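Quick illustration, no need to memorize.
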Amino acid sequence: MKFLTTFSRILVGLLFIFSGIIKSNDPKGTGIKLNEYFDVFASSFQVAQDTVTIEVKDNFDVNDKYSFTLAPGDSFINMQLNQAAPGKILFDDEVDSSFGSTVYVVKNGEEMFSYFYTLEDTIVLPKIQLKVTVSGASSKTIMDRTITINTDTKHEVQEQLNVFAYAKPESMWVGFFRGLKPYSLSFSIIMCILEVIFGFAILIGWQPKIMTWLILGMIVFFTFLTWYSAYYNKVTDCGCFGDFIKLKPWHSFIKDLVLLFFILIIFFRRHQIKPLFSSLFSINAVIVVTLASSVFAIYCNMFLPAWDFLPYKAGNNVREMMTAPKGARTVDSFVNVLVYQKGNQYDSLVFPKMPADTTWKYVTRLDRLIAPAWKSPIHEFDFTPRDEMDVNLKDTLLNSKGYHILVVSAHLEKSHSSSWAKIKELATKAKAMGVGVYAVTSSSLEEADMFASEQQLPFRFGSADETLLKTIVRSNPGIMLWHNGTIVDKWSCRSIPSADKIQQMMKK
C-alpha cells in the first residue's frame, strides 16, 4: 500500500501540474470552454414555452400561418387586422388597374400579412378571419375576429393580447449560469493556478489532509462535467488538456474515473502521507509555485499562448492544411445494414444480403460508418464579403502572392482601446510599403464602419464568425502577418509590431 500510495501521489501530482500548465498556457481558450458549459447548463434548466400561432384565412382559399415561441418576459402582443380605404391600384405595367382594398395583419408594428382584394363586380364579399391560438401545455384560442370587406367603410380590429399568462417563468438556475459567463475567464485563470498548486502540494506531501479533500472535490467536479458531456453529448471536447490533447467525451470520463481511483487511494491513506521537506521549505516552495503559475497564466492571458497548439499557429500553411493529401478519402464510406424481425428475434444483414427465410420481416435500415473521410484541422475558414465588389479575403490570404496584414477583432466594443493608435500607424506605413492590410470583426458592419471612422483607421472591416476569430488569434485585437498562405507570425494587442519589424521579416 505504501508503494501504491507513492505511485498515486506521483501520478496525480504530475497530471494535475501538467493539466494546469497546459490550460494556463491558453486561459482564454479554457474560458471559452467554461462558457460552453455555462450555456449547456443554462439550456438544461430552460422551460419549454408554448407556441403562439397567428392564422389568417379568407373565403377565397387564402390560408397563411405564422408562429413564434413565447419568452419568459413576454407580456402583451398588439394585434391589428386593418382594411385600407377602397381605391384603385396600378399593376406592374402602370396601365391596367383594379378597384379594391388591401387588408393588413400587423403584430407589434410589424406587418405579417397583406393582400389586395378586388371589389369590382363582387358577388361574394371577401371575409377575412384572424385567429390567434396558444398551443402547448395550455392550448387556447385567445383571439378570433372576422371582417367582411366592402366598398363603403374602412374596417379596423385592434386588440392587445395578454400572453404573460401563457409564458412560463424561467428557472433561477438559467439566470445563475448565464450570470457566470462574464466571469468565465477569471474562473479559468483561478482554476488553472489551483490545479498546479494542488498537484505540487500533493507531490511534496504538503498539508496532505487538506489537499486530499480539495483534490477529491475537484476531481468529482471534473468527473461530473465529463460524464455530463459524454452522456448528453453537449460539449464534444472537455478541454481537460486544452488544444494540446483533444479527448472525446467518453475518453475524458474514463480518464477521470481512473484518476478518481488513484485520488481515493491517496484520500484514504492521507494520514500516512509524510512531507518530503520541512514545513518552512514546503510553504516557501508552494508560494513560489503559486507566484510562478499566476505570472505564467496572467502573461499568457495578456499576450498570446506561450505554446500555440491551435491550427492557426505561426509557420502553418493554411492552404496546405485545407487540402486533402493525395489518395485521402474525401467522403465518408457507409454500409447499409438492414434489420429484420421474426417473432421476438432480430437480425441485421449488410445490404445486398437478404434473409433466406422469407418469414423474416423487414424493420428498418441503419447506415453504419466504416471509413470516415479525411478532415482538415482547419474548419470554416471563411469571411463574408461586404458586397459583390468587395475583395475575396479568403482567396487573398491563401492564394495571393506577397505579404498581407490581417487585423482581427472579435468584438470591437470589447477590444483593447489603447492599441488602435499603434495599429493605425502600422497599417498606414505597411500600405506605403505595398503590404495589403485587411481587418475582420464579428461586430456589425455598421458598428465597424463607425468605429473605423472614429479611430481614423486606414481600412474597412469585413465580417467573420466570432468563433473563427477567437480561434485564429487569442487577442482582441490581434495582428497576423501572412505570406503565400502561410502565417508568418501573429501578435497580441499589447505587442503590436512596428512597420520596421514587418519590413525586416519580409526581407528574410
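The mean pLDDT is 89.
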